[in-house]
């Protein structure tokens, strides 16, 4: 009998949490509980997570987090993500609360100081893709670079449960490149949201065209004399920033982290999770569990009055 391959769902925690926060914050619907703690981000985050689990049906599940705003990329380039605003005050207490509810649901939280969630996700994929089928859920298109035969990526769209699904083949169909070539595309065009410029004067369209024609940065530099005078001049004047932008764009897939697949086993909702829902009055999460048939009745919520 052929054993079904284990399937790991890896969640980009910050992507879900911020998306959930801003989906309700525009109406200032922060869902304060009786203790005065806002829960809108946490409740939306859990609804995103549970819906993804319902759709993907993984055997294992883990969440990766950014651990502060400073990473090794800031040491490489001081301007990296320097344009990011501080989170709203209503968001701040929900960072820890989101990790606590994740733990209550029996899901590992993974994060390493000095690295981004993307680096943790890339590392876990790199270490486990030969034994596991892996699906990554994120709102960050940077993670498309780690796609391969055993790793696919779901990019969140508007609403809960709506995704743009990329496999290696669908990525190639969409971009006419291999996923790893996205690193060199971003090295050329830069990323304003992350605060690094790439090569001044080269935009997205030209960046894709150059990598399609020359495969990578090395091939491009080797063939400078075949380029138009304008493109050649831009590259020659910004070679240092090109190489730096490439370092910033590349997800690090060899972070020293601990991840035991067995600890990420996903299945039934445990009593601890139900107690947490009751304690913090996560009504939206409770309703989702009931509607999605994770629970047969409200009585399972430990006699909750929420």
Q: How are the SSEs placed, and which strands pair?
A:
Elements lengths: L6 E6 H13 L14 H17 L3 E5 L7 H5 L15 H13 L4 E2 L6 H12 L4 E6 L12 E6 L6 E4 L1 H8 L6 H8 L14 H11 L2 H6 L6 H9 L1 H11 L21 H9 L3 H9 L15
Parallel strand pairs: 1-2, 1-4, 2-3, 4-5
Antiparallel strand pairs: 5-6
Helix pairs in contact: 1-2, 2-4, 2-13, 7-8, 7-11
Explained architecture:
The chain is an alpha/beta fold and 306 residues long. Helix content is 43%, strand content 9%. Helix 7 packs across helix 8 (204-214) and helix 7 crosses helix 11 (239-249). The protein is globular.
What's the short story on this structure?
It is built from 13 helices and 6 strands. By secondary structure, the chain is an alpha/beta fold. Strands 3-2-1-4-5-6 form a 6-stranded mixed beta sheet, sandwiched between helices.
Outline the biggest β-sheet: 6 strands, mixed
Mean pLDDT: 93
By secondary-structure content and strand pairing, the structural class works out as: alpha/beta
As a whole number of angstroms, the C-alpha radius of gyration is: 21 Å
What overall geometry do the principal axes of the alpha carbons give? globular
What is the string of SSEs from the N terminus onward?
Answer: EHHEHHEHEEEHHHHHHHH
Low-confidence stretches: none
Strand content: 5-15%
Number of DSSP helical runs: 13
Strand order of the largest sheet: 3-2-1-4-5-6
Helix content: 40-55%
Number of strands: 6
């Amino acid at each position: 009998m052929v054993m079904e391959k284990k399937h790991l769902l890896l969640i980009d925690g910050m992507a879900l949490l911020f998306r959930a926060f801003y989906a309700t914050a525009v109406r200032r619907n922060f869902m304060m509980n009786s203790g005065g703690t806002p829960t809108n981000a946490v409740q939306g985050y859990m609804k995103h997570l549970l819906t993804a689990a319902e759709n993907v049906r993984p055997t294992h599940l883990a969440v990766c987090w950014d651990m502060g705003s400073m990473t090794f990329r800031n040491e490489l380039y001081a301007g990296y993500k320097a344009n990011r605003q501080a989170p709203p005050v209503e968001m701040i207490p929900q960072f820890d609360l989101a990790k606590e509810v994740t733990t209550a649901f029996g899901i590992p939280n993974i994060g390493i100081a000095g690295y981004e969630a993307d680096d943790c996700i890339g590392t876990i994929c790199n270490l486990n893709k030969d034994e596991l089928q892996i699906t990554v859920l994120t709102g960050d298109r940077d993670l498309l670079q780690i796609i391969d035969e055993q790793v696919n990526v779901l990019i969140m769209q508007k609403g809960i449960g709506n995704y743009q699904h990329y496999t290696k083949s669908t990525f190639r169909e969409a971009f006419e490149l291999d996923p790893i070539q996205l690193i060199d595309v971003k090295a050329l065009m830069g990323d304003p949201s992350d605060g690094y410029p790439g090569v001044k004067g080269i935009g997205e369209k030209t960046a894709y065209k150059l990598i399609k024609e020359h495969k990578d940065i090395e091939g491009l530099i080797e063939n400078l004399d075949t380029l138009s005078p304008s493109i050649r001049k831009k590259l020659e004047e910004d070679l240092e920033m090109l190489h730096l932008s490439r370092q910033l764009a590349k997800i690090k897939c060899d972070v020293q982290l601990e991840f035991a697949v067995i600890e990420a086993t996903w299945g039934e909702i445990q009593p601890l999770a139900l107690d947490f829902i009751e304690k913090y009055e996560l009504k939206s999460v409770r309703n989702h569990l009931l509607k999605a048939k994770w629970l047969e009745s409200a009585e399972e919520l430990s006699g909750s009055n929420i």
